[in-house]
Amino acid sequence: MQELKLSDWLPTTNKEVKIRGWQELDVILFSGDAYVDHPTFGPAVIGRMLESFGLRVAIVPQPNVNDNLQDFVKLGAPKLFFGVTGGCMDPMISNYNANKKRRDKDAYTPNGDIGFRPDYATTVYSKILKEKWPDVPVLIGGIEASLRRVTHYDYWSDKLLPSILETSKADMLVYGMGEQPLREVVRLLEKGVPFSSINTVNQTAVLLNEGDKIPKNSNWQDVEIASHEVCLKDKKKYASNFKVIEQESNKLAARRIFQKIGDKTLMINPPYPTMTEAEIDASFDLPYTRLPHPKYNKRGPIPAFEMIKFSINIHRGCFGGCSFCTISAHQGKFIASRSQESILKEVDTVANMPDFKGYLSDIGGPSANMYQMKGKVQSICDKCVAPSCISPVICSNLDTSHKPLTELYQAVDSHPKVKKSFIGSGIRHDMLVPEFNKNADPKELDAYTEEVMTKHVSGRLKVAPEHTSDPVLKLMRKPSFSYFHKFKERFDKINIKKGLKLQLIPYFISNHPACEVEDMANLAAETKDMGFQLEQVQGFTPTPMTVATVIYYSGYHPYTLKKVNTPKTRKEKEEQHRFFFWYKDENKAWIKKTLNKVGRQDLLDVLLPAKTEKWRKNKPKGEAKNTFNDAVPFNQRKNKVKYKGKNKKKRR
Question: Closest Cα to residue 480, out of 591, 392, 381, 559?
């Protein structure tokens, strides 16, 4: 690679602006992340895209909010607008764990140091800019702004908050992936349209003051949801809002949404159609250095960058629609796939980096195996309002062919400098099970699974069944756990056939809405019977713009408006966690007491049988943990005790 100069990055200081010979800036971006000039870091993508329009763009990464606020004035005022984002993650997720305890590392900061990103960063930055530069428009975007665009529950303050447009005092919000709306905003500005008059651009939101005229657009239909004040008083009304918001976010011909906030009106314009292959290729083909800014050279590595340094993102979007996940809310449910040519061009760039050793860490996306998947008949997709294309069943109109993906892997591996490419992103294992993916060619699914297992995994294949309880899984918009059993059978078969020694690592969530203690006990028993000794558990963290979070706060399912119980107290959450670690001595007495109390001797016999306890005490050091594979799977036992009373339906 050619040696890079400081001017190869977007400027971050006055000195760097002068190196480029600029006297004035058109756009100044503020970000909660350190500046990494890479296509998987949103601020870099937006900066490079604006630059490609011929604009003079600078970026102020992680501005200091604890001093005299010099970072907010050092570059002066931009000609067009300030752009603000909290970063690649919601700052509250970056700063706190599920128990609301402050994290000791920030993955998007050099050396993982904390303290460089304020809580609610988008709001903090925007308010400072409006105070310092009241006449300069502020445009907010990124995942924090996107997921907080309407009345939303904030887990960390335990409050229902209004649109971030209201709290941040920003002039415009861009939700979702920002390339398309920003292109139109810039076009109108360069045409001479005042920023304050730009209010009919797709995928943007603005606050209208009392008395303002509603902009007309003959192509849009409108819908009004319950006001912020009504939501504060009525949790069921708040829940009912979400069905409208989610469905309109995922429709190709969506309605414009209105919501009253005091004497103002929030107006959310419909999203753009999914990016075309040419559009997404253009975004990834911009002249990124693919490296952190040199200013961080002496501060230590940036963990998030180190993780993706040698990875390739092949698509955006996810049609899973999981009730606890924000991906589809931000990126959409329709898949925007890059061309194989664009991907291979990036592979070649990475392969020629000075420190590349021949190993690509990931060829993936939000879900690794959704590349090039879309509706067979577009007119059917045009009318669809379903939030998921694969729940409760895989849509018959969805083309789930894994052949293009298998061919892509093989093309990547044919590069002379690539020794091995790994799949680090999560794989939807259910889509590889013919019994669930009934319209797919079983041979093609097996070919993909075999390709992944033999060439793209380093010892472990990670998948996310998330739970074992069918009622919980249904609410999660995930398939029955029985399909995980089916996938494991195929996994084991290929393992034996190819003489591999791969491990299957399943990920699960505790404390999810509708999950009860007995569900977690069953999860522990069933996974133990399958040969797993779980070592990690992810506690459900309520994040804005998800079904599960709406249920957590309101107690109602937004689609049925029926009540759903959710574990909320620290005691409830800790008890659900404890079942994951049935093998720890400090949990055994409590597990025995709890299961005896609810009459679940069947689960107790599986989790803590006498012979298992004896085996554990005499277990040779270094012996494999998958010790129970010879047992009959718990869900197949003929003599298993069924749930009693209100829980009787929870056993498959």
Answer: 392
